[in-house]
Amino acid sequence: MIDIKVPQLGESVVEGTVVGWLKKLGDFVVADEAIAEIETDKITMEINASASGKLVEIFVSEGETIAVGGVLGKLDTSAVRAESPKKENSHHLKSEKTMGSEKILSPAAQKISAEKGLSSQNLQGTGKDGRITKEDVLKAPAAVVVNPSSGNQEERVKMTRLRQRIAERLKYSQNTAALLTTFNEVDMTQVMALRDRYKDRFFEKHGVKLGFMSFFVRATVEALKEIPEINAEIDGQDIIYKNYYNIGVAVGTDQGLVVPVVRNAEALGLSDIERSIANYATKARSGSLTVEDLSGGTFTISNGGVYGSLMSTPIVNPPQSGILGLHKIQKRAVVINDTIQIRPMMYLALTYDHRIVDGKGAVSFLSRIKEMIESPEILLLNI
Asked: Is 354 a catalytic residue?
């Protein structure tokens, strides 16, 4: 008999909720076969069997929470698959017949479809053998509930663990850190001209599009090197300075905001950064981000401009001490050499923890980024 344990789920993740069991008591499972699904505050993941055997005990039911290292159930590894080939073939045909008439949903998909009031008949599965996955349900519009007495339309959806955790962490940040936001604006003329001039050659050589985020990631790294307290964190009465630069890039998903991390960005070129961001965006849309993808960030960049935001005050993701907010590029009249010109301008916002970062450092940080974006040759020449 061996225990089915909850593995390490990533940095700062201490528990998860059982979304559903993929096997039932008495089922035979083979090694590495998925047995159950667990939802954490970051991702939904499958728990696989460490060996072949029969599922003989289940200790944690659907909807219950279990800590990392906890025992979900037991496998009897001395058991042997009992089905004969004829029975297996019959079962296989039955499964095919069932799948032809009834759509199969994963436990996570069943939970979310129930919350959204959706019928499986209205869902299109993209998983193996047409299985409806969690991502398929998330993409579908929620059913509308009508109150007959009033004619008003209402929708009640249970918060996911990810949304609950986002709420908890942001409120924790507000309650514990001395948050302050400072602003600046940057003229995007030069970096836009550089991008337009070389974007085709860049794509031909590197196979990835050249965006503005890679410039901001590189500029952020250089600014953090000069003002290290923004890349640090408070631990009790100590300050931990990070001599590496793992830059989180906030990505919006159907479930909420996730922040995959571009690791060791100081060692990456523009093409490496763009490729990493593009890969994360694809994984975020398909719901395949891993715990490792979301762990270990030292500073975060959030681009509300892609949604049309002109200005905002982002909230620091603890235990980090700063977050850079990028906004919509908008043509505005500005004074250049005593003349009024139309320039593509962007507001920058830095929210920082005033317990560790002084106003001088915050203002200098934004000024340095402004300088490098307005004169991108500084970045390229590393001066």
From this structure: yes
